[in-house]
Records
---
Amino acid sequence: MPKGGEVGMKTAQETNRVLTTMSTSPAAIPDMEGWTKFARQAEESGIESVLLSFSRYEPDTILIACAVGLATTKLKFIVAYRSGLIGPTSFVQQLNTLSGFLNGRVALNVVAGSSTAEQRGYGDYLEHDDRYERASEFLSICNSFWHDKNEVNFEGKHYRIENGKIHTPFIAPDRNAPEIFVSGHSEQAQHLALTRGSCWLRLIDTPEKLAPIVKPFREQGTEVALRLALICRPTHEEAVKAGQAMLPDEKINKQERAILTKSDSQTLHHALAVADEVGWLSRNLWAGTVPYYGSSAITLLGSPQELANCFLEYKRIGVTQFIISGWPKLEEMVIFGREVLPLVRQAEQSTNGR
Amino acid sequence: MLPKSGEVVLQGSQTPREAARFRVESTRADSPAAKPEIEGWVHFAQQAENAGIESVLVAFNRYEPDPLMISCALGRATKQLKFIVAYRSGLMQPATFVQQVNTLSGLIDGRIDLNIIAGSSTAEQHGYGDFLTHDERYARAEEFLAVCNAFWRSSGDVDFEGKYYRVEKGKLNTPFVAPDRSKPEIYISGHSEPSEQLVRSQGTCWSRVVDTPEKLVRAVSRMRTAGINVCLRLGLICRPTRAEAVEVAKSILPEDRHEKTISLKDDSQMYREAAAVATDAHWMSRNLWAGLVPHYGPVWTVLLGSPHELAEAFVEYKKIGVTDFIISGWPEIEEVTRFGRELLPLVRAAEQRV
């Protein structure tokens, strides 16, 4: 999902991390006009869900999902939230209420935390590993509220709940709890996804590298989603050129670096290392944008047919979902829905028919 | 007061007694009050706007959907009505709360105020993971609001070091957005000493249960001198004659004279006082009746009479310095309509004369 004001922006450079984290950025202000336009286009383009990112630079994800969800009919909202910022009982009450308004069109992306500095601004002083332990307790309690018939009792290191009960249920046509995406590359994140989540969310890499990592997740009943950015153009060459045009000027580059190196996210450090060392992971996978647009900017690029083949290959190794960005997001989504998705669906049909 | 979910009858009619029973039984697990139902709320909100009502209070408890979400959904469907969101201070980090409230303000053009409650019954608090005592909860609420107010006041980073909260360089880019102010009104309810202190130090409006003007005049004057507004909560029964109003009031009394819902809130000072008062004198004045209080608690104190008697009563409260009224009715929607049609014009006319 685009940031506030992003739908109206003219250049990709305006969406970079340095500018959108400034207090004067339109990213701080709810943008119902832009979001509604984007969300309705997403429905038309065959997109199932959008991810709403959580940070101190942007409006609250649960409330955005509520407002935009009421302006749409099919689109689902994957709400990113950090587990240390709200009690699990209150969180379940908010999400369940939201599910009732949107007929269940809400999923959850639980994030254990962000940079130490940002966490402290929210009143959270735990270290990286403790945050995962807390996230595990947090989700354990949430899952009890969703799945147990009885009152919830929990006695942990970070939370204690006695005879917890919330009358408002999670309401959806086909489920009684939201899907839970857990993102992160660290050992703890993977463990959390396996034990408490329904889908592990990680950055894209080459199918060869991912195949052995994806397999154990699928064997244990956990889905795998990849985050990537997409540049689809008529030819590979044009896509590469569009990618190069994304790179910003040197001043932004330095500021961006300064922000990124402060994070204690393992995911981000992996992505940065990849960008520095190789740049190109394969013919269609490029990490050149990562230093400027963040770790989720590893880019799959090429012609529609090349990209359709890539998606099918990821599907073959067990990947079940993709969370896709683009520059601009709206236009790239339209291209994806028009050029790439029909090729993928066609190939799936002929495989199934065989 | 916003009716509970499912309380508004869209087709057919509802007697005052049926409306009261719906509310009394709303804490049952199978009550429709648990499931958010936007249609009835939108209908009520439109009637309230037509009746000249400025704001509605949206309650918080474990039996009903989350009030921030309700205000978001209903705020998007209305144009003028304001929402006083009740929230308990121990359930999330103040920074997260401010981020949610600010986001909501941007989505509904600033039509949001807060009613901060330090806590509810011990049992309900335990279910939310809160194990503090009554007085500790007030100390925490004080810190909670101090941090919130710092976010709303400050253009720079927020630093706070207290017993319950610690925030280091807190910063939220999303501001509170409203045409006429940069922070919400903060209502604090309660009759205890700590609650009065809290409203003086961190709030803007003291909310308490109605009493006779003679009993209220000193406390109200103290608050107003300190620059704090005063809001009275009451139930309203307006009928062509006092005798008819009394008859309606009596019809709400439970068949089971021992029925009580107020034991749920065992450690609230307001509830203890009300219980004591109500048993020995059900008529507090000619128009103020506490007959329902022993059963359902202090907010069921009823102001009743003919339109003229009630208009006089409201003008009298205004004269002693009361600024706001939060009114309930049985059914809410009919009483709101009657209030706007019969009573408000008389009050406005009397104000003109003064």
Note: The first helix of chain B runs from residue 16 to 24.
---
Amino acid sequence: MSGTPARSIGSFAAALALLAACTGKLDVTLPGPVTEGQIEPVSVAISLTKVKGLLTGLPPTDVEIQAVQADPNALRGLVQQWIATPQHTAKLLGFFSNAFQQSQSVSADFNDQLADAEGIIDARLLENLHESFARTALQLVQEGAPFTSAMTTRRFMLTTRLMLLYAYLDGIQVNDGGDNVDLFAKANPGFKFTLTAKAGVIPLSETFDRNSPNYMIFYAPQLAGAAYDGLCPQDPIVYDGRDGQDSVSAALYVTLQGKPDSFTVPTGSGDDHECQPPAFPAAYQPLTAGDSQEWHMVEVVQAGPDEGTSSVLDLTNFRTGGNLLLRTPRVGFFTTPSFLAEWNTNNSNQARVTANQTLIVALGHAISPQNATPPPSTASVDLAHAPEGSACYACHQSLDPMRQFFRQQYSYYFHPQTSQKEISLPGSFGFRGASVSGSNIFDLATELSAHPDFAGAWVQKLCTWANSARCDETDGEFARVAAMFANSEYDWKTLEATLFSSPLVTYLAPTRTVSQGGEVFPVSRREHLCGALSNRLAIPDVCGLDVNTVVPKGLKQVQFIARVLPSDAYSRGAEEPVLANDPNLFFRTGMENICATLAATLIDAAGARWSSASPDAAIADFVHTLMGVGAGRDATPLSILGDHLAAARAAGLSASDALKSTFVLACLSPSVVGMGQ
Amino acid sequence: MTMNLTRRKLLLETLFGAGLLGLRSLATGIPIAVLANPRRAGAQVAGCSSNPAAQYILLSSSSDGDPLNANVPGMYQIPDIAHPPAVTMAPAQLTLSGQTFTAATPWAQLPQALLDRTCFFHHGTYTVVHPDLANVMSLQGFVSHHEMLVSLLSEQLAGCLGTVQTQPLALGPRSASEGLTVGGRPQPILSPSALASLLSSPAGALGQIQKIRDADLDRLNQWYRDNGNSAQRGFIDRYALSQQQARSVSETLLSSLAAIKDNSADSQVAAALILFRMNISPVVSIHIPFGGDNHTDTALARETAETIAGVATIGNLWTQLNAAGLQDRVSFATMNVFGRTLSAAKGNGSGRTHQGDHHVAVLIGKPFKGGVVGGVEAGGDDYRATSIDAATGSAVPGGSGNVPFSETLSAMGKTLGVGCGVSGEVLDLSIRGGKVVAGALAG
């Protein structure tokens, strides 16, 4: 193994930079990789197990291993094949969801944005919110757009339910003081809607047809028959924003989710009594399952001050996609409801956390004295909090003008800003050497996409995902990969093909990252484990992580345990995710129970994949498919599993139970519970 | 693989069979004590074979920076300090080891025996930034190698208590920023309601031959070790250790864990106590809310509700400890990222912001003497913790105490450690600054 001296790395980087400057777009066949130091390399089989496992959850085939053994350059082609698979798309969805910090919010985090509709985010809608920007990024990648467009895009993958949510949020205005104005009601004076069973079945198309006599009359069969509450109106129920009701806008939005909005009525004693009409029966729910399962790329168009906007009344149109015309600016990953829910703010924080997390996602670094750069304007620095010359000023000189991009545009509740003082104070960008004038949130998007740290930030995120440890940004190989990414015009597929065939990830040659930091072999954290089990056992979403998955009774235990297995997560202010890499007793026992549950489903059950009548075939499949050990090196594992089957039979177990125990043994093997084994 | 059969057989027999413990330990990284008695894979820490003073530690931590500091003993001498106006939080007198103090009513309603071993330790955390909880847990870097205090204590206490593992455990739900690290390695956050499902062994036939399967998994592991490099072998050794630890967990208490159906603060307490009884780890971290990040909190209503509930959870902890006979074996401590601002004149009656200069660690347990350590004085725009007299624990306003304000966090850490049975020498070597506050400790 030959290492390249540090001086050569510098020369290489300089040459690379020069070439990049001359050509603008770098040829991806440029020499590489940049090696340095010494490592204890892994075998090609192990390397491919890691790389293909990461990308697809599947083990490499003997043919693939032999191809790379014969020609190491064949790996890049294989990686390109693997990243084109649907299994990889599923894994990338999870990566993007986490990397763009869209996936950790819980329902209550949205309450600030939702005003009167707080608490309405159910599991399906929450999953839509978590996935939306990840799907957006995937779509941009599929379209061949530069990855920088993830910063600047005004097109988002949305479901009908998300379009409805975006429209609802845009129809209310919550200012810094928490005062709530129903803009929708103001734009539609006298608006009301009615729930009734008396008029017979009313198709939703008529309910939403302004020309229909049934406009805004919902068929509510649940109101027929016995009174749901003797103190409350029964049929019809009219919502018009009267005292005791939420804003009509919120009432309509909530009702569309399937359970009519609650309201209060006065009692004779001067108290209020809460009325909660029953939910629509399944057949008459205004929203369908498809409304949270069908995705469209939707452009969010910024409405002018006097323009009409999309509203919840456009529900039936939303089902065909189209555009959203909104007052609320939506651009890039950092203005999605989910990001803003996860990194919500208040009058003390003044959107500083939102701005800081935006920088962490986009550029991989947080505000710190070292990262701060004086921006063109420091007018928005809170000098009372951070006087000039104080230790605090070192960060706030950069952070406060940065957060002003948000404050100038949004209230603390992430509705359009109404404070003229805030509106008149524009944002200003100063971060890690870049100091650029700006004004609104769209300018922030542009600055993020143009920042010199962008390429390295995303190489780092992907490298950390691949290695379960941070890569060394002074590593010449890291710089090479980043340069390749930047000079491919930020083509994500080029980044993936380059990084996953790089020794940074393959461990087939030394890099500074690995020679100094060591090779990392972690447990298979939840998303990797579940992806691998799903793809190797051919059970879609075996862990039931997708809320739309109907989990068979026999796999409920897998779903339950999988939810508490270690997973990737970002903590506030952290530049890298929290990765629990080590096996511990809880992981070990949890895995044993997952494997035992799977065994009961997969062996000898009706329609099961394996039968105890054919134990040899089953064991071969355990070794080759589940453990991912190819035919070229399977003798010992086959022998051990065969021995176990025999020992189990000798201990008095039935043939079926003995094979199940053998499956559990295979399922607990290091190449299933660990990554890259 | 070119290894001949003779050597392979030898390795199989010696590494995972009944062979030489030393070689097996060397090969696997598993301590000899574990290999000698795999059914009791207790943690092994040199120099602590038995220590009657050793305590289990139940830590409550929050990256929200709850207003726990605002309504405890020591906070009622200064009229400007804002307290919730609710009758349920009205100032009330309580007695701590014979001394009378004032605190919010819920604290005064705790059992006297509990109060007499409750120390309210006033100190700074020196940060107003939520993500700094990990730094606070390392006493702002004053613990060697940036280790978290509880990880240091856990490692030191594991051998004394003979626990299954040396690492502390984090119970959730909680954010990733409230996770624990050991040597920089993040530890998983466990869900109380899932513990039983995680820890129980497979039922029926699969459970019957677990030992055979374990032995065959050892053989599989060995094959992977033979084919892997040293980093891979390191993983497999840790994995093998986790199996040994799993087998040393008593299953007799699993039914108690199975009764835990949610992840509330009370459930976290219940789960922690069961884990102590199972002797799994010396330290369990939970999150008891005491008002959260209450910037906007009209009439301090959230602070009121969560303080009442939080103190009730501590009361419940006391009840459960006594029921389990653990009241003298388990100590409780709180350690949040920061406290919250206090001055009523500056608007803290309707919400509070971050206060890095004042936080109160509530230390409860047999080793602690009921009372107040340190105090609060005007400082900056608000108030801050005073310096402390290490001998008595008294507040020394003006900064002339022998525990200066800047070392009050370290002093709290050392006091907690010594109280829980870790040697002062070890703590002095491992923690910069601060002093053990003798006045906080029971005689």
Note: The longest strand of chain B covers residues 91-96.
